[in-house]
Amino acid sequence: MNTNELKAARVRRGLTQKDLAARLGWTVPSYCMKEKGRRDMSVRDINKISQALKLSESEKINIFFD
Question: The whole model's pTM is what?
Answer without folding.
Answer: 0.93
